[in-house]
Amino acid sequence: MRYGGEMSPQLEMLKGTLDLMVLQTLAAMGSLHGYGIARRIEQVSKDAILLNQGTIYASLVRLQQRGLIRCEWGTSDNNRRAKFYSITRRGSRRLAETTENWEQLSAVIARFFAAQKEPSR
Amino acid sequence: MSDAIRAFFSRLRAIFTKGPLDNDFSDELAAHLDLLAAENEKSGMTPDQARRAALVRVGNRESLREMHRDERGLPFLEILLQDLRYAGRSLRRDAGFFFAAVLIMGLGIGASATIFSVVHTLLIRPLPFRDPGRLAWIANHEDATGDLSAKTTQVDHFLDLREKNQSFTDMAAYFAFYGVGDAKLIGDGEPERLTSVPVSQNFFPLLGVEPQIGRQFSNEECKWNGPKAVMLSDGLWRRKFGADPLIVGRALPFDGGPATVVGVLPASFDFATVFAPGSRMDIFEPFPMSPETNRWGNTLLIVGRLKPGASVKSAQAEATILGKLDKQSHPERNDFAPMLSALAEHVSGRLRPALFLLASAVSVVMLIVCANLSNLLLARGTTRQKEIAIRAALGAGKGRLIGQMLTESLLLSSCGAVAGLLLALAGTRVLVHLTAVSIPLLADVRIDGSVLGFTLVVAVVTGLIFGLAPALQVPRFALSDTLQDATRGSSQGQARSWLRSGLVISEIALACVLLAGAGLLIRSFLRVLDVNLGFRPDRAAALRVDPSSAIRPKSNVTHILPKSCIAHWTFPALRPPDFPTICRSDATEAGASQRKAWSIRRKIILAASRAS
Questions:
Q1: Cα–Cα distance between A67 and A113 in angstroms, integer?
Q2: B281-321 confidence digits (pLDDT tens)
Q3: What is the pLDDT of residue B531?
Q4: DSSP-derived pairing of the beta strands B283-286 and B196-199
Q5: How far is A74 from chain B (nearest CA, A)?
Q6: Quick one: angle between helices B155-164 and B312-329, nearest 10?
Q7: What is the 3-state secondary structure (H, E, C) of chain A?
Q8: Which long-range CB contacts under 8 A does B448-454 form with residues at least 24 apart?
Q9: Which of A20, A40, A51, A53 is the best substitution to test chain B (most B C-beta atoms within 10 A)?
Q10: What is the pLDDT of residues A6-63, one digit of tens each?
Q11: φ, ψ of residue B169 in degrees (nearest 5)
Q12: Contact state of A35 with B59 under an 8 Å Cβ cutoff
């Protein structure tokens, strides 16, 4: 097997993060092709997430298989045939839930680290 | 539907649409590159530069495709399918080997599945009654004696024990001395002998058996000289009455007078298979628990349902005391020493050693099958050295090669399992229709889910066992010198020849064990056949004549009736018996009806010899 069945926890989390970003991008921008999504994530994250643009397609397959996004072939701005992705209702619901969890978690962690930094009296 | 399930199904779907999905992704990547290159050109690159920059930015397309495939499909399953296809192709090339292996496997698995279905029915599957674990068998004295009247209980003892005990929710009984074929259905057409079992009123409710149509026996019907009522077995109802639902309420003409059908028992209830293996019960009539039947002496066989919390052991302790007290306060009654056992134990307990022997024999057969196939595969492995070496040279890992070999042996064992199941189906069908042997529950033996599960496990385990030795040879074959010089192959086979001779030796050793066991069994069987019966059974036939109880005096029955039978002899194929060779033999009747000295009716068996 080329990609071993066991994944490191970091990689697993990175995948989840990427999936969440793709969902958020589609929720914000409506229908987009793979290239557009990759561009958008690069811009927003300042190239911190994508090693290369092709990785985005793994995420798109995962989201599609879970019924969170759907796709159809269409024509791009410069008349090129491309596959366009958009978020489903299930996807929007999932995004809302995950965002909430994520925000709570990051708030807790932020508070936790802030508290540790204060000098103990 | 959860994400995981959704993803699994779409991954599964993706395996079967591999080609289109690959093309689709290639198109998508091409579009991506075009868009990126166009963007790059806008920022001032030459078309060439723009294209190259785009290729770098997107990443290696081949590895992206691999990633896409792994992400959308089930890599494990795809490899398995690939291996299966490959195994199928290589086995097709070697059809002789394939059929031999499947035949060997099929015989082994067929035998073990058949024996397992018997073991499962007799020892594992609960009896076909409601909550059968709480049912107990209550015999009188020791259950080991052959004499039925020493095992049965008098009516008053039964009634007392039933009333006074604290361990049972209820007890029911049936009359042990029913006569096989004693109930004669007359009326339209040919009269037919039926077997009727008298049972206590609560017999069916206690076992949890509800009539499929009609009702249970009423209080009135269970009184001495009460209205005559019968319940029909499902078999009789279908065979004789065409499953007519209007049968309930009809009076059937029996030789002893008409009896009303009150209900039809469900097909799932088979009295004979549990209580009197090897026979067939057609109807059931109520048995009155009255002073009259009490006078008949020991007649009842008892089944009790234990209260929750009560065990056979505690109930036994109580019943022993109650039995003694009863006998003390009623010295006029027969002896009563209740012996309890779990009903399942009573039904099939005595067969346990025999089944264990059979199961062991079958396991030995299975081991021989494994050793045999292992050897065949090893021999085959030698001819495949080059192929394996080439695959290894092309980059197949050891794990992958071993997996491939194991897939092949599993494919073989699965094909063997299918063949085996067909054999087992035939085998169980034969077993079910064996009427000459009296093994309880035999009619219930069938191939069901558990037998299928068992076969699957056996197939996988044997596949792994016999595939392991050949598969572990693979890494050695994968060495490159196999490729360089296969003619030197004979010198490297030291370890393998050890393995193969070990297999052959164990095979022969196991076969010897089986042969010796089978030989001893056959010897004992021949001894049984050799028992001197006192007559020559090969040319003899038995005719049964039931004289009417109206013939008086009784001596006429044994003296005059046989004479008149012979005088009116109408069987051309049979020579009439010489007069003295008439035996009055009730004790040799099949089934549980060993007659007692007080036998109300008498039967005459005429021994006739076949005219040559």
A1: 37
A2: 899 999 999 988 888 888 899 999 999 988 999 999 999 99
A3: 77
A4: parallel
A5: 11
A6: 120
A7: CCCCCCCCHHHHHHHHHHHHHHHHHHHHHCCEEHHHHHHHHHHHHCCCCCCCHHHHHHHHHHHHHCCCEEEEEEECCCCCEEEEEEECHHHHHHHHHHHHHHHHHHHHHHHHHHHHHCCCC
A8: B448/B117, B448/B120, B450/B120, B450/B124, B450/B125, B451/B113, B451/B116, B451/B117, B451/B120, B451/B424, B452/B421, B454/B112, B454/B113, B454/B116, B454/B120
A9: A53
A10: 456 666 677 788 888 999 999 998 899 999 999 888 888 877 776 688 888 989 998 9
A11: -70, -35
A12: no
Instruction: For residue A108, give how far its alpha carbon lies from the nearest alpha carbon of chain B (Å).
Output: 27
Give residue B384's identity as a one-letter amino acid code. Answer: R
Instruction: Give the Cα separation of B401 and B171 in Å (integer).
Output: 65
Q: Are the beta carbons of A33 and B75 separated by less than 8 Å?
A: no
Q: Is B279 helix (H, G, I), strand (E, B) or coil?
A: coil
Identify which of A3, A57, A65 has the shortest CB distance to residue B64.
A57
Contact B31 A35 (CB under 8 A): yes
> Which has the higher per-residue pLDDT, B229 or B148?
B229
Other Cβ atoms less than 10 A from the Cβ of B87: the count is 19
What distance in Å separates residue A58's CA from the closest CA in chain B? Answer: 6
Mean pLDDT computed over B222-230: 90
Tokens representing A113? 């680290």
CA geometry: angle at B137 spanning B225 and B443, to 5°?
Answer: 90
Is B28 in Cβ contact with A66 (below 8 Å)? no
Task: Take residue B449 and report the two structure tokens written for it.
Answer: 């889910």
The answer to whether B266 touches B234, Cβ cutoff 8 Å, is yes
Contact B102, B416 (CB under 8 A): yes
| CB proximity B65 to A under 8 Å | no
For residue range B15-67, what is the model confidence (pLDDT) as tens digits? 888 888 888 899 888 889 988 898 888 888 899 999 998 898 888 888 888 88
- Separation CA B445–CA B465 (nearest Å): 29
The side-by-side arrangement of strands in the sheet containing A69-75 is: A32-33, A81-87, A69-75
Q: Which two tokens stand for residue B534?
A: 């006192």
Whether B382 and B507 have beta carbons less than 8 Å apart is answered as no
Interval B481-493: pLDDT, tens: 555 555 544 445 5
Supply B524's token pair.
């004992």
Cα gap B63→B73, rounded to integer Å: 15
Cβ contact, residue pair B31, A80, below 8 Å: yes
Average pLDDT over residues B368-389: 83
Q: Say whether the peptide bond before residue B553 is cis (omega within 30 degrees of 0).
A: yes
Whether the Cβ atoms of residue B77 and residue B8 lie closer than 8 Å to each other: no
Q: Which residues pair with B305 in a beta bridge?
A: B135, B170
